Design the sequence.
């Protein structure tokens, strides 16, 4: 992916750029809003990572301008302002995701990669498959190796999200935000327990596990071992 | 007023001065300063204004009484005298001087207060009886009513004190030659009237003086009490500025506007004090709760640097988890601080808690079951509250986390199952109660107020996991919602014999009492929503 990072804190930016490059992405970096806007206008990016508070031109305005121009490149806001209203303001300005500082880098990279996927027209897809696991959104059925698996509604939504982001790291916070639509970090391992229940249904009786734990980051649904 | 007085005493070489000055010593300037301050107070100025207005009213009253009482009386006297003189002229013209003298004599006998004098112009012979033996000098200067004094003659023939009179002079002319024949003075004794007038005037003046004095005294007293109240406020503020944050404005319990002000200020000071104490606690606790994980992380880094291969990766993984926990703690601290500063709550909307309870218990049910808890839900339908879905769900999540973490039973054979009960119900007085109760070891009543403090944990060694911020976050969320937070006894414990019971036989229960949205507020809200949506459409 080609990613544009617009962040005025040069140290944080250097860390971000380095980390994203190590994860195999091409990264450009702007230190202020004006430069960032110019670079975005030149086009060709798969995702933007924008700090909300920038010198010269703040992040919200920057993205609003791009959206007015018809630029639909997915954007992730970084902000020290983490309350609900701030988040809403960020999403209203055209942001696709919102991450509050301080954040874990694994969280950021998972979200940026999820953004890249969003461009693919997944919305119209009603059938997913990962390895021999198949899901049909319309009939709400899940099969593995042809065998029907019964899932609770929430388990179904959980698996659906994982399948939409197959081969990609999904963090616990992303799951809580997208499957339960809550924006907080529970101290208890509530998500882990839901995952292990899901695992019990889709992986237990099969040789090859599909739902894997990524240490220090989250989970990934993948057929590759 | 006070300044010249005090300077008089200190500057002028008054022979008595030094002695008196020495006697009263340093208190004198203070007394004058105090007096001066009293006189300058707003209350005293108002009093002065009122007194002036009152005096003006009294003066107007006097003028009015005078005009409506004494002036008509004098006018009446004048009229009767003028009529008399016309009558006398008529008598003289028709019947001559002897008849006139007779009429006048008759009249002076009939009326004690009537005074007459008839003087023949040519000879100066007096035809009338009575006390006047010559024309008073005032009579020569006017043809109008005039005042004069005369000496009455008592029945014993002795002269008394001079008395005031009021009269007119008529001139009787010869009907043929038109020569001046007689000058005639008709007058009344006005001693009684004057007396009445004097009495009235002095009464009014006395009333005025008394009013003025009373007003001044009253003004002085009110300004003094005003001043002492302000002084007390000033003292309290000065003490607070010096750092005594527990000091409060004096409330006298008389429910006046000063008490209202004091209560308001005290409410503000309570909040400031709470914030300050919170800050102090945080900085105290940061030492322990943030420094020790940081130290651990640093040590782990050092260890990791000496390792290689898989061991190194494992150490780094641990490090990463450790730092993430630290970050979570920081985030929680930040959120609490935001909430308490009043900026973090965002816009509170009318929300329904029922789905929150349903979704969160569903979210926590597997984790609870795994940890060996029976999680039961009593989700009664409740009216909407004014709140934030995010914050209420965060609070419930923290309470569930807390129950899962601390309501554990120690290992043993015949240990009953842990229970957690979430209940949502409507209570009297438009209150919605969201409660989480457990049958864990509970919290001793004396420790209950403390569990909302940041980083507070029951075991001082802080061995159990968790940041110690969960309940303080709940407390902050409750305050942001103006909800009452009640910490009480939870579910009863069926304690097996081999376990020593630390608390009162009940677990812990934490209840949040939200106020329901009032119909009026709901209407306002929807109006607001309409207006913002129309704005949005325009833009």
Sequence:
């Amino acid at each position: 992916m080609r990613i544009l990072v617009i962040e005025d804190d040069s140290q944080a930016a250097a860390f971000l750029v380095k980390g994203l490059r190590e994860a195999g992405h091409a990264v450009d970096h702007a230190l202020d809003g004006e430069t960032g806007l110019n670079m975005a206008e030149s086009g060709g990016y798969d995702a933007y990572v924008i700090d909300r508070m920038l010198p010269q031109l703040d992040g919200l305005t920057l993205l609003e301008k791009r959206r007015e121009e018809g630029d639909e490149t997915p954007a992730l806001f970084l902000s020290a302002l983490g309350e609900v209203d701030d988040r809403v303001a960020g999403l209203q300005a055209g942001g696709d995701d919102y991450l509050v500082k301080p954040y874990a880098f694994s969280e950021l990279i998972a979200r940026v990669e999820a953004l890249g996927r969003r461009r693919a027209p997944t919305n119209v897809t009603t059938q997913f498959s990962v390895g021999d696991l198949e899901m049909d959104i319309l009939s709400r059925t899940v099969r593995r190796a042809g065998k029907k698996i019964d899932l609770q509604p929430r388990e179904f939504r959980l698996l659906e999200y994982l399948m939409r982001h197959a081969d990609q790291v999904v963090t616990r916070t992303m799951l809580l935000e997208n499957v339960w639509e809550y924006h907080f970090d529970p101290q208890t391992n509530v998500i882990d327990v839901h995952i292990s229940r899901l695992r019990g249904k889709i992986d237990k009786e099969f040789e090859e596990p599909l739902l894997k734990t990524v240490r220090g980051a989250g989970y990934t649904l993948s057929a590759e071992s | 007023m006070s300044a010249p007085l005090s300077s008089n005493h200190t500057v002028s070489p008054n022979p008595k001065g030094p002695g008196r000055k020495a006697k009263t010593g340093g208190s004198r300037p203070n007394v004058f300063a105090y007096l001066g301050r009293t006189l300058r107070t707003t209350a005293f100025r108002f009093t002065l204004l009122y007194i002036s207005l009152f005096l003006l009213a009294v003066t107007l009253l006097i003028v009015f009484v005078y005009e409506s009482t004494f002036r008509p009386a004098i006018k009446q006297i004048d009229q009767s005298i003028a009529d008399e003189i016309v009558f006398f002229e008529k008598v003289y013209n028709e019947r001559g001087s002897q008849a006139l003298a007779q009429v006048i004599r008759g009249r002076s006998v009939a009326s004690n207060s009537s005074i007459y004098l008839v003087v023949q112009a040519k000879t100066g012979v007096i035809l009338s009886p009575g006390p006047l033996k010559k024309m008073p000098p005032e009579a020569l200067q006017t043809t109008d009513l005039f005042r004069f004094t005369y000496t009455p003659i008592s029945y014993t023939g002795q002269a008394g004190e001079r008395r005031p009179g009021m009269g007119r002079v008529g001139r009787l002319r010869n009907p043929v030659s038109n020569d001046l024949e007689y000058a005639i003075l008709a007058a009344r004794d006005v001693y009684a009237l004057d007396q009445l007038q004097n009495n009235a005037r002095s009464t009014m003046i006395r009333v005025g003086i008394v009013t003025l004095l009373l007003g001044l005294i009253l003004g002085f007293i009110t300004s003094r009490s005003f001043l002492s109240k302000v002084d007390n406020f000033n003292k309290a503020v000065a003490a607070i500025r010096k750092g005594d944050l527990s000091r409060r404005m004096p409330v006298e319990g008389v429910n006046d506007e000063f008490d209202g002000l004091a209560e308001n200020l005290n409410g503000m000071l309570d909040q400031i004090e709470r914030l300050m104490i919170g800050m102090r606690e945080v900085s105290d606790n940061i030492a322990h709760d943030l420094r020790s994980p940081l130290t651990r992380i640093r040590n782990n880094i050092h260890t990791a640097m000496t390792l290689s291969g898989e061991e190194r990766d494992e150490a780094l993984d641990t490090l990463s988890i450790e730092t993430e926990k630290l970050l979570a703690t920081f985030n929680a601290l930040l959120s609490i601080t935001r909430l308490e500063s009043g900026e973090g709550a965002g816009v509170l909307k009318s929300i329904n808690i029922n789905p929150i309870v349903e979704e969160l218990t569903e979210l926590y049910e597997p984790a609870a079951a795994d940890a060996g808890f029976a999680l039961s839900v009593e989700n009664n339908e409740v009216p909407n509250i004014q709140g934030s879905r995010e914050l209420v769900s965060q609070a419930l999540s923290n309470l569930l986390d807390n129950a899962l973490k601390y309501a554990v039973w120690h290992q043993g054979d015949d240990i009953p199952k842990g229970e957690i009960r979430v209940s949502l119900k409507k209570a009297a007085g438009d209150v919605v109660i969201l409660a989480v109760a457990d049958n864990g070891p509970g919290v001793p009543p004396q420790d209950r107020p403390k569990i909302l403090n940041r980083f507070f944990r029951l075991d001082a060694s802080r061995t159990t996991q968790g940041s110690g911020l969960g309940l303080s976050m709940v407390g902050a969320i409750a305050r942001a919602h103006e909800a009452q937070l009640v910490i009480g006894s939870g579910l009863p414990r069926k304690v097996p014999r081999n376990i020593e019971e630390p608390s009162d036989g009940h677990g812990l229960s934490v209840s949040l009492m939200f106020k329901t949205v009032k119909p009026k507020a709901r209407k306002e809200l929807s109006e607001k929503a309409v207006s913002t949506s129309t704005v949005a459409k325009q833009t």
